[in-house]
Amino acid sequence: MLIRSAELHLAAHTPEQLKRDDTPHIAFAGRSNVGKSSLINALLKRKNLARTSSTPGKTRAIFFFRVNDAFTFADLPGYGYAKISKGERQFFRVLVDRYFEFPDNPKACVILIDPRRPVGEEELSFLAYLTNRNMKALIIMTKWDRVKAAQRVKMRRARELELAAHPVKVLPVSSKTGEGLDQLWHFITKNTKDFLSPDA
Ligand SMILES: Nc1nc2c(ncn2[C@@H]2O[C@H](COP(=O)(O)OP(=O)(O)OP(=O)(O)O)[C@@H](O)[C@H]2O)c(=O)[nH]1
Ligand SMILES: [Mg+2]
Fold first, then answer.
1. Does the beta carbon of 34 lie inside 6 Å of ligand 1?
2. 77 near 62, Cβ under 8 Å?
3. Which of 15, 110, 147, 149 is most enclosed, with most CB atoms within 10 A?
4. Is residue 151 part of a domain?
5. Domain contains 197
């Protein structure tokens, strides 16, 4: 994908700050620290457009990045982060719910999981939530560069088995080495293609 432009379009810290727009959206969801912001930077070939950190809980709002003036990436706050208060977690949930309730977007969701852990209740209920809304989803196994070659097949099978009840593909990706990014772009363009210009 040729990235002609990528910029922060909006940061929504509260549901009231959400705005409707007419571009297709790809939302990036997953536990805190799983690598959502890093993946957005890797896709857009920008070092620090989406802010990343080794401290979990970095992304505390929904950040919207407009790409090529044609579509939007939404960097969602991480779920399942133990150190935030119950009230704050509930607040994020309301924010994310409101975002998904917008009628025109998003169009598709990328859910990042840590391939070294069993798929959690949070991921499974989030997948059910997306299915209920007829939204396309793709599972990304992140930080694939950290998984030893000898463990890859076994690990992938285990995660696929845990996700078997859902009609969803699983893709290993590394934001560090770039592995899997082309296939991820394929999913993104498929779900945004009506809006892309011919040279994209
Ligand atoms: N080795 C490796 N490290 C990664 C990769 N992707 C992300 N990381 C590291 O994982 C840590 C967390 O990455 P972030 O992108 O900030 O994670 P996040 O999901 O946005 O986290 P929150 O904003 O807290 O929800 C950082 O230290 C990244 O450098 C990857 O593909 N490979
Ligand atoms: Mg983040």
1. yes
2. yes
3. 110
4. yes
5. no
Verify whether ligand 1 is closer than 6 Å to residue 31 (CB atom). Answer: no
Q: In a mutational test of the pocket of ligand 1, which residue from 53, 81, 145, 181 has the highest number of ligand atoms less than 8 Å from its CB? A: 53
Domain that holds residue 144: 6-189
Count of structural domains, the chain: 1
Whether cis (ω within 30° of 0) applies to the bond prior to 198 is: no
> How far, in Å, is the centroid of ligand 1 from the Cα of 175?
8
Classify residue 146: in a domain, yes or no: yes
Return all residues near 136 (Cβ < 8 A) that are at least 6 apart: 107, 108, 109, 191
Please tell me if the CB atom of residue 176 comes closer than 6 angstroms to any atom of ligand 1. yes
Ligand 1 atom with the smallest distance to the CA of 38 is: 15
The tens-digit pLDDT sequence of the chain (200 residues) is 899 999 999 999 999 999 988 899 999 999 889 999 999 999 999 999 998 877 776 667 999 999 999 999 999 988 765 566 777 777 778 898 899 888 666 679 999 999 999 999 889 988 998 888 888 999 999 999 999 999 999 999 999 999 999 989 999 999 999 999 999 999 999 888 755 444 44
In short, whether 177's Cβ falls inside 6 Å of ligand 1 is no
CATH code where residue 73 lies: 3.40.50.300
